[in-house]
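Work Package 4 report. The design task specified in the project plan requires that, given a folded chain encoded as structure tokens, an amino acid be chosen for each position. We show below one input record used in the internal validation round.
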């Protein structure tokens, strides 16, 4: 098998390995391939892979697929798609002002704001949030008992017996499902363990869920910690950043335009009055290379 060309980008430390579909024709299992290349010690290392396929005669310019390190496919990734957009500009595969990427959760728009060598800044339009809880018999029973309706901001609780903890959360789907948990101090509990437990509550979230812990600083700033579905702890996440912004604004804790501070960096998030979600962030080239499959 010929070596497979790739480039690795990261958005505030949240790293994705970008491939073009034509280099992956001979890969029999993308699930196993993603697992292998994402391993930090024996692979390229990454929080996921993005796969780009040029489209013809469609509303979008490219199809963009996101595969998590565990081999599962994500509906969307804010940083993953931003890394894919940066790759297309870096490789001179796209030169227009606004790039349209087709994802499982719909078409996303990326406007290149600035380029400084191998750093790319984008304004991304991500669509509108959905507040419908996932389809599951367990949650359907809860909604029926309390008379809640789909489409409204979704508040619920989850009991973690081993931790002897009842966790209140806010649910929003921003292309990926996200559970938002408001906290006062990240150091008062093991948020990584709690995030992992919530992610895996398949009775409530049949396809698992991302978890973002949110600390409100003031009406224009929040701080977050991230546990991503299929990836675990990450330093940044566009998906979780905009979800945290929507959760904070929906509950009246912040304005609709805020700065979201994650360990890797700050994402500017806007939830417009027309419900459209926008984020501004960067993608940096880490390196390019070749992967020798089966070696």
């Amino acid at each position: 098998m010929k070596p497979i060309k790739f480039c690795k980008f990261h958005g505030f430390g949240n790293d994705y390995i970008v491939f073009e579909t034509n280099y992956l024709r001979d890969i029999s299992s993308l699930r196993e391939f993603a697992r292998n290349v994402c391993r930090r010690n024996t692979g390229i290392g990454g929080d996921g892979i993005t796969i780009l396929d040029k489209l013809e005669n469609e509303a979008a310019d490219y199809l963009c697929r996101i595969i998590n390190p565990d081999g599962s496919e994500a509906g969307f990734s804010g940083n993953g798609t931003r890394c894919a957009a940066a790759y297309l500009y870096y490789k001179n595969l796209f030169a227009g002002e606004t790039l349209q990427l087709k994802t499982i959760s719909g078409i996303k728009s990326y406007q290149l704001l600035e380029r400084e060598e191998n750093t790319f800044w984008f304004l991304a339009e991500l669509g509108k949030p959905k507040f419908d809880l996932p389809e599951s018999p367990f949650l359907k029973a809860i909604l029926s008992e309390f008379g809640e309706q789909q489409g409204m901001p979704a508040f619920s609780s989850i009991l973690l017996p081993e931790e002897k903890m009842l966790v209140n959360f806010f649910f929003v789907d921003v292309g990926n499902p996200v559970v938002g948990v408001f906290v006062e101090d990240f150091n008062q509990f093991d948020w990584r363990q709690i995030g992992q437990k919530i992610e895996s509550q398949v009775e409530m979230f049949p396809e698992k869920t991302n978890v973002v812990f949110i600390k409100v600083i003031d009406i224009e700033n929040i701080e977050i910690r991230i546990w991503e579905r299929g990836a675990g702890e990450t330093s940044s996440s566009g998906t979780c950043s905009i979800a945290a912004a929507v959760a904070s604004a929906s509950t009246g804790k912040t304005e609709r335009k805020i700065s979201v501070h994650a360990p890797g960096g700050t994402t500017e998030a806007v939830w417009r009055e027309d419900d459209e979600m926008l984020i501004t962030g960067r993608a940096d080239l880490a390196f390019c290379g070749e992967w020798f499959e089966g070696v």
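The radius of gyration is 19 Å. Validation will be extended to a larger panel in the next phase.
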